[in-house]
Amino acid sequence: MKGVYVMSRISATSSQTVNVRSLLDEKRSKKLKVRKLENIIPYLLLLCALVSILTTAGILFTLLRETVGFFSEVSIIEFYTGTNWSPWSGDFGVLPLISGTLLITVIATVVAVPLGLMSAIFLSEYASESVRKTIKPILEILAGIPTVVYGFFALTFVTPILQSIIPELSIFNALSGGVVVGIMIVPMVASLSEDAMNAVPNSLREGAYALGGTRLEVAIKVVVPAALSGIIAAVVLAISRAIGETMIVTIAAGATPSLTMNPTDSVQTMTAFIVQAATGDTTFGSIIYYSLYAVGITLFVLTMIMNLLSQYISRKFREEY
Amino acid sequence: MIEMEKQSVNPVKEETASSNIFEVQDLNLWYGDDQALYEINMDIPKYQVTAIIGPSGCGKSTFIKTLNRMVEMVPSVKTTGAINYGDQNIYEEKYRVEDLRMKVGMVFQKPNPFPKSVYENVAYGPKIHGIKDKKTLDQIVERSLRGAAIWDEVKDRLNENAFGLSGGQQQRVCIARALAVEPDVILMDEPTSALDPISTSKVEELIQELKKEYSIVIVTHNMQQAARISDRTGFFLNGELVEYANTNQLFQTPTDKRTEDYITGRFG
């Protein structure tokens, strides 16, 4: 092999023409140093990936440790079955916070799923290319509005409108907060569902149109089912987002933990309690301080269940194409 | 007008004096500013196989898609001229494209079953047109699958996803899907180009069976196939219908020099 290398070098210099082979050999020997770096790169990238994994593990560890501390003082049964949450007077029944969170989430879902899905169907099946290219970025900008702005929008714009329809509505209520959380997650549902529907091959649409299907029939009976796993994933992701939403509900839904499913009532969600307690003058090491972690881990478990559910459902409904 | 509407809802196949299923008159078609079809005049006979041949990009696929107006899936398409189907111009404004496509079925180049079960694939057409009764649907599915010569292969797998079938089987399921709404015409756009030789011959045999009950228009880039299965053949070149004649005549004694060059393999 060395002989060949030398010979090609000679022929290159003697004939005065460019010998690609020898040029490449030359470059390659220079590249040897780079190749060592090449071997290190995967580990570097792995390290970067580990950072986020380790952070998650760290958070989980802290949550668990402090939660264990909390449950040494308050019984876990009392925590998860108690119907009264007034930590400053020693009542640690988390159910009102869970019901508040669920109420907001249900309202948000009821608002976001139809709106988001219909927007997605419009964008993917009806809108022309130019309309889609204009509307989709606008939708995505909507997703970038800070939630604190949504919160004030709920309190100062949506609540007064709702009050003119439902006069007995209090200033702080679950309805307004839930509706605005719903509006906040519409772009997420719409955009992700549209991606899923756009990924449905055109040949399927052609097949359906060729059988005499109308646009609506093709959209609802072929495209949506074919994109269902993606749509469900979008919806569940959006619901997770609604469960974890903090600012809107803190501002608009009030701070009254109550075990209710009445949307006109003021409620407090788990996230809103965490804000309230964490920004107030809670002493480090007090029982209220520990309760933050117990509520936090409950929230974490709830979101995790949602994510697992989405994976299960999307696998079950998947239509391969 | 009222009478025409009656005709279009009448499920019985019309026995008019004309022996043509389609009469294409002075058809021009543009994609945006690019003209793709020039002054096409063509009578397509009933209960026969009409083949469309020509090199890539000659407009043969575009032409076959004008017959069920699938060509309008491209938003910038413009057409002039007329295509008469049972005394009515399908390009008339009032003509409902869904009614047309129910009567003029289509099979595509690449098998495109829906990602559903074999049964649901075939039942899809009847279902969207309002047939809900399970027994009726069962019958339609079986008859259509038998019609497409695939019943024996899939009768035990009706509830499996159609994507699990082989390419040739998928294509025959697609043919069954088209048959399920009992069309008058079946358009086939290079239906065997993605299939292996054995599946191809099965589909070709099937076409011979189908022409007893349906009028068939088939686009093919395979001249032997056109010669084997069709009764009439049209040769397209650069958007023009160069020659249109009985298949034997066109392949043995073409009248146009360009046809002769193409079928003897001098270009394309």
UniProtKB/TrEMBL annotation, chain A:
Annotated GO MF terms: phosphate transmembrane transporter activity
One Gene Ontology cellular component annotation? plasma membrane
Pfam families per the UniProt record, alphabetical: BPD_transp_1
GO BP terms: namely:
phosphate ion transport
Question: InterPro entries in the record, alphabetically?
Answer: MetI-like, MetI-like_sf, Phosphate_PstC
Q: Where in the cell is it found?
A: Cell membrane; Membrane
Topology in the membrane? Multi-pass membrane protein
Superkingdom of origin organism: Bacteria
Keywords for the protein's UniProt record, in alphabetical order: Cell membrane, Membrane, Phosphate transport, Transmembrane, Transmembrane helix, Transport
Using the record's annotation, list all stretches that form the ABC transmembrane type-1 domain: 98-310
Q: Where are the transmembrane segments?
A: 40-64, 94-117, 138-162, 174-197, 218-239, 287-309
Recorded family membership: Belongs to the binding-protein-dependent transport system permease family. CysTW subfamily.
Q: What is this protein called?
A: Phosphate transport system permease protein
Q: Which organism is it from?
A: Salimicrobium flavidum
TrEMBL record, chain B:
Alphabetical list of PROSITE patterns matching this protein? ABC_TRANSPORTER_1, ABC_TRANSPORTER_2
InterPro entries reported for this sequence: AAA+_ATPase, ABC_transporter-like_ATP-bd, ABC_transporter-like_CS, P-loop_NTPase, PstB-like
Provide the alphabetized UniProt keywords: ATP-binding, Cell membrane, Membrane, Nucleotide-binding, Phosphate transport, Translocase, Transport
Recorded GO MF terms: ATP binding; ATP hydrolysis activity; phosphate transmembrane transporter activity
What domain of life is recorded for the organism? Answer: Bacteria
Q: Which Gene3D superfamilies match?
A: P-loop containing nucleotide triphosphate hydrolases
Location (main, coarse): membrane
Regions annotated as coiled coil? none
Instruction: Kindly give the membrane topology term recorded for this protein.
Output: Peripheral membrane protein
Q: Any idea where the ABC transporter domain is? A: 22-263
Q: Which GO terms describe its biological process?
A: phosphate ion transmembrane transport
Q: Where in the cell is it found?
A: Cell inner membrane
What cellular component GO annotations does this protein have?
plasma membrane
Q: What does this protein do?
A: Part of the ABC transporter complex PstSACB involved in phosphate import. Responsible for energy coupling to the transport system.
Please name the NCBIfam families in this protein's record: 3a0107s01c2
The identity of this protein, by name, is Phosphate ABC transporter ATP-binding protein, PhoT family
Whose protein is this, by species? Salimicrobium flavidum
